[in-house]
Amino acid sequence: MISVNICSPTLDLAVPWDDLVRRASSNVFMNPVALTVANETGFARIQVLLAWDDSTEPRRLVGIWAFQVRRISRLWPAQLEALPYNYAFLSNPVVDPAFVRDVIPAFLSAIRNSPVLPKLINLKSLDAEAPSFEMLLNALTEQGRAQLKLSESTRPFATPEVGVKRSGSTRKKLRQDWNRLSAVGVVDIVNHRAPDTREAFETFLKLEAAGWKGARGTALLCDAADAAFARQMVAALAEGGNASVALLRVDGCAIAAQVLMYCGSTAYTWKTAFSPDYAKYSPGALLIDRITDDLFSSAGIAAIDSCSYEGSFMAQLWAGRRKMADLLVDVGPGKSLAFSLEVVRQRGYDYLRRLRDRIRAWSVPAVPKSKKVSFAAHR
Predict the structure, then answer these.
(1) What is the pLDDT of residue 373?
(2) Is 236 in the same domain as 338?
């Protein structure tokens, strides 16, 4: 008794979404509030798949999966991308576990049968340990759909039981940095999940623009459209208690900021920024370390997703890891030309990215072994 409809995101979905995430797997980037902001501002062209249990009255939402419709160029085939907008870091659908065996195949069939949706699906940053991932692979195999696993990786991830490093050189350095910073002035951390986070988020934006991202031109404030979308999205999520901005302060002045998002029992460390004037104290790492404990001591948080990659400083703070995968899928009949072209493009892109990283590594001067290296920033 599962039906699927395809629509643009609207705020009318907020209530059934809140009901769903009490039962389902977590993905804050599928929150209809964020999707609506992205779609209505033109930041992304989004289509949402909604799975309903029609056996109840009224019917109940049991799954949601959002995609942005993208076309690299006019000459390139359109595709669906399950990171529904730029600055999203998780592609998994949000599905009630009691219905996952029915919902995932129904989602794939809905895309295949849609007269308007592309059949090529780019699934980057999939949580490979979520129940929906195994069911997705099974459904693709059973339906005979073309699929290619582009890459596998791990992501720093923390839970109260597994994840936070409590001893070793990392813990020692954090204590030393905190003590050194405390000698500079009165140090405190604030993180209020208040409906209005605008002032704190502006502090984050300024810190990010003043740091290495601003110098590279990748800070949010370097692009007016990106900054406008981020402001509206964070404000909209915060209004429902689903976003906050934690600040590390010295004598009341913020020297680091962490934008946090929330979905169900999971918190997401979305973006970090810190003042370069305090870089020697590793303020971003100190803030994450303290916020981690604060989140787990608060009611309802059972996991923290770093939204980051294995080589980030988060990996030095947390021992926990989450398996991730990138998939390319074609739900149309057979293997299409669009699928083959995208495979070539993706492999070429990965090769060029690895080549760029090697060139950068060759150009970085060697650091003497006796010299301590501070935590690197992420995202």
Answers:
(1) 38
(2) no
On the question of a cis peptide bond just before residue 58, with omega within 30 degrees of 0, the verdict is: yes
Which residues share a beta bridge with 303? 266
Same-domain status, 63 and 143? yes
Q: Which two tokens stand for residue 43?
A: 């930041």
Distance CA 125, CA 177 (A): 33
Q: Rounded to whole angstroms, what are the CA distances from 268 to 60, 259, 264, 271, 295?
A: 27, 8, 11, 9, 11
Instruction: Answer for the pair 253, 298: CB distance below 8 angstroms, yes or no.
Output: no
Residue with tokens 């797997």: 25
- Percentage helix, strand, coil for the chain under 3-state DSSP, each rounded to 5: 40, 25, 35
Residues 298 and 330 both lie in one domain: no
Structure tokens at 50: 């909604």
Asked if 287 and 263 sit in the same domain, the reply is: yes
Buried b (16+ CB within 10 A) or exposed e, 6-17: beebeeebeebb
CB atoms closer than 10 angstroms to residue 297: 9
Query: What is the per-residue pLDDT for 71?
Result: 85
Below-70 pLDDT ranges, the chain? 360-361, 363-379
**What is the predicted pLDDT for the residue at 363?**
61
- Cβ–Cβ < 8 Å for 66, 49: yes
Q: What is the pLDDT of residue 335?
A: 72
Assigned token pair, 317: 């703070």
In a domain, 371, yes or no: no
Residue whose token pair is 């294995």: 310
Asked if residues 134 and 284 have their Cβ atoms less than 8 Å apart, the reply is: no
Give CA–CA dist 177/179, Å, rounded.
5
- Same domain for 221 and 236? yes
Q: Does residue 368 lie in a domain region?
A: no
* Same-domain pairing of 88 and 195: no
* Residues 201 and 254 grouped into a single domain: yes
CATH number, residue 78: 3.40.630.30
How many domains, in total, are found in the chain? 2
Domain that holds residue 340: 2-153+324-361
164 closest CA partner among 290, 80, 52: 290
